[in-house]
Amino acid sequence: MTFLDLSPRDAEDILDGGHLPGRSDLACVLELAAFMRATGEVEPAPPMRAELIYLLGVGAPPATN
Amino acid sequence: MQSTDERTQPTSAPDTGVGHVAPLALLVDDARAGCPRAFEQIYRRLAGHVSSYLRWHRASDPDGLTNDVFAQVHRKLPEFEGDDQRFRSWLFTIAHHRMIDDRRRASRQPPVQGDVGNDEGIGCGDVEEDAFAVMAHDQVRDLVAVLSPDQRDVVLLRIVADLSVDEVARMLGKREGAVKALQHRALATLRRHLEGHALV
């Protein structure tokens, strides 16, 4: 079964990070997948909060309200 | 019981600075043995991916939830067994459950206008040259939001969490065939919407 010439194999290749040469008709979804993948790779780790640092045993107890 | 000073030093995965990347499995072993430095390295390596995953799901506080996820990882680490990829899958299973809890919590609260999470940290590097980088990130998230919850879960776990079909199937309690069908329908839906988008 295909949707607009997008086969299950195409979908798998796109999600696996494949390039699908010669499939300019799928460029939009390939770019979207690449963009989404890149956001995970470039996003910096958020700062560790006091609770987590304390849990690691290297910080002071977090302030309580 | 080790002293704090002993535990701050990794036992088998030294951080020798630029150019040295300790294998994740070694860091996990050291963190499980009580080395906070190893745990911090795991955090630095994977917390951005977790935060990004939660952001794509429009979690209310991705950075705070990421901290919660890693706190749970730290607590449950002694029970963990497996290799790098298994650890990654386990980490995102915890993140996914946290996200579901967050979603349930949010659904019980009145909506706040314009509160769709924090965009800090997204959009640097080569991706800015992409057509999608010129779209507002919220627009791209809106695009993903057209998917059914099951389709969205599969696509985000496959792409952002970088998990395989069988790992996603195990995590979501589905058959591999069902995951493949969901990812196929999801991409077909996204493609249909993208073809109607002015920028593509």
How would you explain this protein's 3D organization?
The complex is a heterodimer of chains A (65) and B (200). Chain A has 65 residues and is mostly helical. Chain A is built from three helices and no strands. Chain A is 46% helix and 0% strand. The termini of chain A are far apart. Chain B has two domains: 95 residues, Orthogonal Bundle (Rna Polymerase Sigma Factor, Chain: A); 68 residues, Arc Repressor Mutant, subunit A (Orthogonal Bundle). By secondary structure, chain B is mostly helical. Chain B is globular, with a radius of gyration of 19 Å. Classes of the chains: A mainly alpha (65), B mainly alpha (200). The interface between A and B is large, with 39 and 64 residues.
Topology, pairings included?
The complex is a heterodimer of chains A (65) and B (200).
Chain A: H1 8-15, H2 27-42, H3 50-55
Chain B: H1 4-7, H2 24-32, H3 36-56, H4 62-76, H5 84-107, H6 137-145, H7 149-159, H8 165-172, H9 176-195
Helix pairs in contact in B: 2-3, 3-4, 3-5, 4-5, 7-9, 8-9
Features:
heterodimer; A: 65 residues; mainly alpha; 46% helix; B: 200 residues; Rna Polymerase Sigma Factor, Chain: A; Arc Repressor Mutant, subunit A; 2 domains; globular; disordered N terminus
Q: Give the N-terminus to C-terminus distance of chain B in angstroms.
A: 59 Å
Detail the poorly predicted runs of chain A.
none
Quaternary state of the chains: heterodimer
What separation lies between the terminal Cα atoms of chain A? 58 Å
Shape of chain B: globular
- How many structurally independent domains of chain B? 2
Counted by DSSP, the helix tally of chain A is 3
CATH-derived topology of the largest domain in chain B: Rna Polymerase Sigma Factor, Chain: A
User: In percent terms, what proportion of residues of chain A is strand?
Assistant: under 5%
> CATH class of the largest domain in chain B, please?
Mainly Alpha
Mean pLDDT of chain B: 81
- Tell the overall outline of chain A: rod-shaped
CATH A-level architecture of the largest domain in chain B: Orthogonal Bundle
